[in-house]
Amino acid sequence: MNIPRPVFLLCAALPLLGCVSVAQAATPGPAAAVPVFEQWRETEHRGGDDLLTAGLGLDGLRIATAPAFASAAQPTAAEARRRAIWSSWRGIADLTPGGGFGDVYGNLQAAQGREFSAYARIPGARQPHRVLVQVPDNFDPAKRCLVTAASSGSRGIYGAISVAGSWGLAHGCAVAYTDKGTGSDYYDLDARSGFQADGTPATQGALAFVPTDTKATHGIAFKHAHSGDNPEADWGRHLLQALQFGLQALDRAYPQSAPFTPANTRTLGAGVSNGGGAVLRAAEIEGDWFDAVVAGEPNVSVAGAPPLYDFVTQSALLMPCALLALDDLPQPPMQAQAAPAWTQRCAILKSAGLVQGDDTAAQAQSARQQLADAGLSDGALRAGAFSTGFDLWRAIAVSYASAYGRYGAGEHPCAYSYSAVGADGKPVPAAAELRASWWSEGSGIPPGSGVVLVDGNAAQSTEDPLRGLNCLHALGLGDSADAERVRAGIADAAAKAPRRGLPIVIIHGIDDGLVPISMTSDRYVPLARKAGAQIAYWRVSNGQHFDSLLAFPDYRKRYVPLLPYMFTAMDQVWDHLEDPARALPQDALIQPTPRAEAPLQRSQLSIPTVSGR
To answer: Which of 38, 141, 224, 474 could be stapled to 257 by a disulfide with Cβ–Cβ 3.0 to 4.6 Å?
Structure first.
């Protein structure tokens, strides 16, 4: 699973020294409050260090080894940025030869220009979120446009660059980003070290995240789980503040053309996964902030329907067993290696009374049926094998439970925590070299980048191997004080209907195994239409959640990338905004053909068309 017509006081004489920007609002209502932006920075990116790829280009992004730090423990701001952009591209897009990015769809041309960044804060929030704006040199104030995006997943500030940056910079637009209160600003509790505004590690100064009211003194805290703010409840407001920051940055970049406002600047919200959920939440907010929004595979829950958290915890329990009821699973994970552990899970579930059947086949079918009853198709179950094989369900559940309940580090109700580990697998303080890489490479939800999930239930695992998973599941369904606390956070994050008349395009893969279409977009679209939304819904056959998985041969034989449809929808919406005589996108059931080992051809994608194109 995006504002008033402001008058700006820009602290223009001190753009790199952390000055504060203040604005005054003219639009009434609670959504009109203009944020204070702190730690303003302005940097130039020209020549061998561009906005889109940090000078790496397609060849550099394809290299599996991260761009090096001259000093492994103390990268420069430029080095941290370059590695963050490299990591963000590789985590979202399929950049493999023949995959089509930069050729059949998308843009990888170097864009010269400036970046403006700052911290923003939702009123009442304990922690800030990052905002960043890229202003290309070919931006034309006479044709002013601003694309605004939130990072997918829980990624850092560049987490939407392969979507919004690729499209927006190619169109000469400024591009505004937010990490939406999640991101890779990890904090080392042992070293008392976090990250500065420029992405470099530090133990003091204006750090992007410093946990408060924490009971833990050792290990690692990170913003999504431990901010105490339940970021998902405010994703729409995070995106709105990024748009506001974009307008202020343009005022600073082009003072002779100021003010830049939603009334005189074309604004487009775009995002995938959690970023897609953020743009739909921003679409709820009163005011003509966005001219249109495009959301891909959005993580969006609708009030009154079972929340995605319940599906995640149910999948963590049942999916390892349920997958044994299906043949021909995508690889990886390697089913031959995973099957023994999955068989054992079936037996454990049987002993706990969670599945029925006297043998593994019957137990697997029982688990499969329970997931089907929850709304998961066999296609989505197959695609969910990746999340199961790499223990993503548990990782997601642990982090989101902490966020929904607003728990600090050391307070998780199911006794989970995070740490670096030594060669013996036991928690140890993180090495400085490891810590220095987190901002650039962390996904925002460990494990990964040398940070592991520590299960405080491990000592009881012999007697109760499902203790931790059952605890996570009960937080969504039980009647304990902790369960009520978590459910209150889940309710706060539920989507409402969008603003009437706002053009919206939603794109979702029918085989999405992480954010199932039946539990998210299929529920949101009727809600939006009932409220009068101007919405187009593109359902993509042979589409799953992760374009980056198409780097694996077995995945590209089965699935197609979803980013081509994002770019097409943005093109078609943009054409309509330029000329209302051109039609908006319409509903489509898209039936493309995976490329297998041949280079992708545009004709295989069955791209929807509209009149006038």
So the answer is: 141
Alpha helices (runs of H) in 254-334, residue ranges in sequence order: 274-282, 308-322
> Which residue type sits at 170?
A
- Do 308 and 299 form a contact (C-beta atoms < 8 A)? yes
Distance CA 338, CA 340 (A): 6
Q: Give the strand pairing for 220-221 and 187-188.
A: antiparallel
**Is residue 335 within 8 Å of residue 311, measured between CB atoms?**
no
Phi-psi bin for 50: left (phi > 0), alpha (psi -120 to 50), beta?
Answer: beta
Structure tokens at 548: 């980056």
Give residue-wise pLDDT tens across range 178-221: 999 999 999 999 999 999 999 999 999 999 999 987 788 899 99
Q: For residue 581, with 0-12 CB atoms within 10 Å meaning exposed, 13-18 middle and 19 or more buried, which class applies?
A: exposed
- The pLDDT tens digits of the residues spanning 134-148 come to 999 999 999 999 999
Q: Let me know the angle formed at the C-alpha of 197 by 132 and 40, rounded to the nearest 5 degrees.
A: 60
Helix, strand, coil % in the chain, rounded to nearest 5: 35, 15, 45
pLDDT tier, 613 (very low <50, low <70, confident <90, very high otherwise) = low
Q: What are phi and psi of 90, to 5 degrees?
A: -70, -25
Give, in order, the Cα–Cα distances in Å from 575 to each of 162, 223, 470, 578, 613.
21, 38, 50, 5, 9
CA 422 to mean position of chain CA atoms: 30
Tell me the longest C-alpha to C-alpha distance in the chain: 77
Catalytic option among 88, 227, 273, 419: 273
**Residue 31: CB atoms within 10 Å:** 18
Percent of the chain with pLDDT over 90: 90
Per-residue confidence at 33, pLDDT binned at 50, 70, 90? low
Looking at residue 25, its pLDDT comes to 32
* Selected residue with higher pLDDT from 461 and 522: 522
Is residue 273 annotated as part of the catalytic site, yes or no?
A: yes
Q: Dump pLDDT digits (tens) for 50-75.
A: 999 999 999 999 999 999 999 999 99
pTM: 0.93
CA distance 332 to 74: 35
